[in-house]
Amino acid sequence: MEDLKKITSKSLKDIYSATLKTVEKNKAQMFSISETARKEVDFQRKQLADIKGQLVEIIAKVDYLERKTQQGKQSLAAASKAFSAQDMQDLYGEVAFMLDQLQVSRQKEESLRRQRDALEISLRGLDGLLEQAEQMTMTIGSVATYLSFQFSKITQQIEITEESQSLGARVIMAHEEERKRISRNLHDTVAQGLAAALMQLSICKLALADGDPEGAAHAIDDTSDNIRNCLADTRQVIFDMRPMALDDKGLAFAIHQLCTSYRDKNTLNISYNLKGEEYPLPKHVEITIYRAVQESLSNILHHSGQTRGSIDIDYAPEALKIVIKDTGKGFDLKKAPSAADDEDRRHFGLACMQEGARFAGADLRITSSPGKGTTVRIKVPR
User: Fold this and answer.
1) Residue 128: is its pLDDT beyond 70?
2) Domain 2-170 is classified in which CATH homologous superfamily?
3) Which of 176, 207, 247, 350 could connect to 212 by a Cys-Cys bridge, CB 3.0–4.6 Å?
4) Percent of the residues in the chain that have a pLDDT greater than 70, as a whole number
């Protein structure tokens, strides 16, 4: 089923990617068509302007020739009685020549008018085609932009879903690891201590039966010690699961108590610094932050190679800020978890910290690099 989900997600990404590429290709083609149409429109507009210029000139020439021809005819009629036959023949030749020129000019005018009309019809069609091409280019561009945005959202959602599924599995495994740890602690401490107490009570009973009060008293003392140790171990397990100080005295005191317990065990020396006046946060937020601090200190103890670190707590007016630092060996945040159990648990712990902080409305950032230690920053809006 998991493989099927991965295949489906990959196929969906491929489909969207192919669709987007096709749309982008069509957009480029339509843009090319628009540019070609625009060039043709510009060319024909230039031709039309040239023809209109020629038409203005030829119309003026036709008008001129018509006037001159009319004047020639009138002159020819008026001078028919005063001039000789030769003079009349020359004057008639000039009028005939102007008539020929007028006929040629009229034909040219008619031709230019047809060309002008044809170009205007062609331009109207090209203008409509160009407008449609530009609209289609804009539409395809809008579709491409929309698909690109949707593809980004869908890809992000797929990644979030896959990450959530993976994180959910890791959180379950981390919870199981925590249950195993508690079970081992109860078995190795409380259960063993109670078994030893029962054995000591049996020894006490035998000593009393044999009339050995000193031996019985010694066995009672050993039993008391075992029960006292069991009680301390039980309290420690309870403290690890849910520190009572968190409910009674607040988050800052509970974190300070956690640092003190590490120091008392000679396992970690954590420098604790509190700034600002403490204010309460919702209980589920405080327990989430406490767990993040607890996990961070555990990582310092088990993975940093150092026995020293620091916690700075700042109750600023706008937000609670916590910074946990160590100067240990650090690690590569981009590196995938290795197959080693310790490394797996560390990465599971970091995943649980980040997921818990996200659900609690906190911002948790981890910075680390090999050889330069690790810093955990937690910010909780007030």
Assistant:
1) yes
2) Methyl-accepting chemotaxis protein (1.10.287.950)
3) 207
4) 81
Rounded to the nearest 5°, which phi and psi values hold at 211? 70, 35
Residue for token digits 């993975």? 303
Residue 178 has pLDDT above 70, yes or no: no
Q: Which residues contact 64 (CB under 8 A, 6 or more apart)?
A: none
- Asked if residue 63 has pLDDT above 50, the reply is yes
Indicate the DSSP class of residue 187.
I
Residue 39 burial class via C-beta count within 10 angstroms: exposed 0-12, middle 13-18, buried 19 and up:
exposed
Query: Where do the structural domains in the chain lie, given as residue ranges?
Result: 2-170, 243-382
**Concatenated DSSP letters of 270-287:** EEEEEES------HHHHH
- The answer to whether the CB of 292 falls within 8 A of the CB of 303 is no
Which residues lie closer than 8 Å to 337 by C-beta, 6 or more apart? 343, 344, 346, 347
* Bridge-based pairing state of the strands 308-315 and 269-275: parallel
Paired strand residues for 319:
381
- Which residue did the predictor score with more confidence, 309 or 223? 309
Highest mean pLDDT among 28-37, 52-61, 310-319: 310-319
DSSP bridge partners of 363: 379
* C-alpha to C-alpha distance for 268 and 283, rounded to whole angstroms: 27
- Alpha carbon distance 255, 293 (integer Å): 8
User: CA–CA distance from 330 to each of 61, 306, 342, 346, 373 (Å)?
Assistant: 95, 10, 14, 12, 4
- Which CATH number does 243-382 carry? 3.30.565.10
pTM: predicted TM-score of the whole model, two decimal places:
0.47
Nearest to 73 by CA among 91, 57, 48, 47: 91
**10 Å Cβ neighbour count for 311?**
21
